[in-house]
Amino acid sequence: MSTPRSSPLVPHSDASRGSRTSVIDELIAGLGRSRVLIDADVVRSYVHDEAEWAPYSPPLAVVRATSTDDVQHTVRWALQHDVPLVPRGAGTGLSGGANAVEGCVVVSLEKMNSVLEVNPLERIAVVQPGVVNDDLRKAVATDGLWYPPDPASSPWSTIGGNVATNAGGVCCVKYGVTRDYVIGLEVVTGTGETVRLGRRTAKGVAGLDLAALFVGSEGTLGIVTEVTVKLRPLPDPGRTVLGYFDSIVDAGVAVRDVAARGLTPSALEIVDRICLQAVDEMTGMGLASEANVVLIGKVDEPGEAGATAAREMVAAFETGGATFVAETADAEEADAMMAARRLAYPAMERKGPLLTEDIVVAKEHVPEMLRRIEQISQDVGVTIASVAHAGDGNLHPLMVAGRDDDDERVRAQQAFDRIIDECLQLGGTVTGEHGVGLLKMPGAARELGPEVMAMQRAVKQALDPHGIFNPGKVF
What is the pLDDT of residues 147-203, one digit of tens each? Predict the structure, then answer.
């Protein structure tokens, strides 16, 4: 039975403790005591990700793997003893995908954090799954290269976790998501084998693209122990357009007009007043005194092409009814505005538990979806803050609930469900980058339908025949 997120871990009964101890002792004997964590206080920090209200249960232990051999040994041990495994990166996920399940062993990949290779000629990097996203960016920047996927959690989230959820981010409106950059994987499979998927070459079409299949599988098909990604040259610093709006729907109209003008911004981000106030309280930036809603757009074409694109973006913002528009090529000023966007979620967390959406609608429907979210907030009577990767229609409504207000939590969940319903009605999808995990399972089932869900379960059965990888998630 799942333990509520706010409750302490519940110990196993005395009746089960003897058999459990002997099995874990065998794991410790194989891996060494330093790699197998059983102290309750230490284990506690590994039992859930950042998804509020997603259930979790006490694991038997945590394996802190340091190599592919450690992972393979753990998988083979789990197969022998029929123990479920829950892979975990940095625990920054927002869907409950890394939450421990009853009787499992959590496999933490945080210690597998080496950049193994950077190849400037081929423009690829090979990394272990525990490498932090921003650390990879820094490592390749010394060769004038760039890894584009940049979730807001990039200072903390790991490449393995990004692979698990097919993470996106600010730059993905132009440059694509994690799957667009992963070309090869090393994986420990559901039969305890270590295999290599994909390639290192620029092209390759031999067989099914199994590497792409694993990206976004949320730890349900195997455990990724090495990732090969392609890189791009560092982009031009570009230009940033900042717009202030009276309403979030007006900002959504500007987003739609940016697309209608044929622009492909390198970023197009919305931050509403509630989030601006939270960032102000945390940083003293003073943004909320100037605007109800901020829309931040970036273009990175060099020279006159960039200047033309920036002018067109200014015009689009004005079409949306911006009360103020400014364009700058000052990188420091632009970075300060984008920092406010990245700080929105941690700033909002200071106000109380957040139930976080991750819906995507077509760009033409962005204004209407934002209007419906505002209406839901009024109907249900719960505060909904909004940030968005608006350029690709990826919206993040944040339901705010008091820490000890059960009624408000119920209303927040009602809002969460209604937002998903409205998103699907507009032809959208329930997740653009956070993954299905636990929180989005009902919505994903409605979106995909029984036939497609059956196909996905068939793939899961084929690759994880004993059902040991992250059971009870996604499918």
Answer: 999 998 999 999 999 999 999 999 999 999 999 999 999 999 999 999 999 999 999
SS (HEC) of 291-343? CCEEEEEEECCCHHHHHHHHHHHHHHHHHCCCCEEEEECCHHHHHHHHHHHHH
Closest to 106 (Cα-Cα) out of 92, 91, 86, 90: 86
Q: Which two tokens stand for residue 270?
A: 């919305």
Structure token pair of residue 98: 């890394």
Do you know the residue count of the chain? 475
In three-state secondary structure terms, 448 is helix
Where are any strands of DSSP class E within 172-266? 182-188, 194-198, 223-230, 232-233, 239-245
Q: For 284-298, what is each residue's pLDDT tens digit?
A: 888 888 899 999 999
Q: Output the six-digit token pair for 145.
A: 């290269």
pTM: 0.93
Q: Which domains does the chain have, with CATH numbers?
A: 14-108 (3.30.43.10), 115-233 (3.30.465.10), 239-425 (3.40.462.10)
